[in-house]
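Hello Y.,

Per our agreement to keep a running log of every chain we model this quarter, I'm adding this entry. I've kept the format consistent with earlier entries: sequence first, then predicted structure.
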Amino acid sequence: MRKNHSTLEKIRLSKLMSEQGICSRREADRFIERGWVFVDGERISELGTKIYPTQKIKLNRAAQNQQGNLITILLNKPIGYVSGQPEPGYRPAISLIKRESQFFDKHSRQRFTPENLKNLAPAGRLDIDSQGLLVLTQDGRIAKQLVGTDSEIKKEYLVRVEGSLPKTKLALLNYGLSLDGQELKPAQVTWQNQDQLHFVLQEGRKRQIRRMCELVNLKVTGLKRIQIGKIKLANLPSGKWRYLSANEVF
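Predicted structure for the entry above:
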């Protein structure tokens, strides 16, 4: 590798690739092992290699082609399913991804194969008592885009509540609450109808909406995620899923 006289500290290559949104760290390690990663034009095949943040990273065509074949799935998760790894007795949302539950519309062309389940993981959580749009992906770039610490993707929810909400407390839902000693980012919370609120969040703390509502003495009786970034739940039926098409972006 050519010399670099930068005063910056070297960083593990796979970590830097993840931070730059090239791929996930797991994918980076796989690409490095196969000799598919180049730094300043030099092939890198040793795991654990560290480089300077200013050096140029490039994937070869094989890695680029493999990334182009990674799939992302949109699921309308019903209540009663958990997003990630379940404890005994709980049903994982990924168990709904099968041939007979695929939803087709005029834009659908790709058909399910069992290979699509390999390395498929949820990008974000939706708790067992909630329903709506859940993203599962093989693509580390999409996962980082949706759940990375610097993600700017907004998520929208319809939340049915019980209790009174004066304007002062509605203002608190929009900005001024803290969870676990950490101030929440500003939200957009408005009344959708008489007993339902519309939430727009730019972060996803554990059971965040339910805990926010508890802080203003509201009880959540229903929660549905209807949009992530530019992708809407739309007419996707509960328990059904579809592929993210090539022309859709978050």
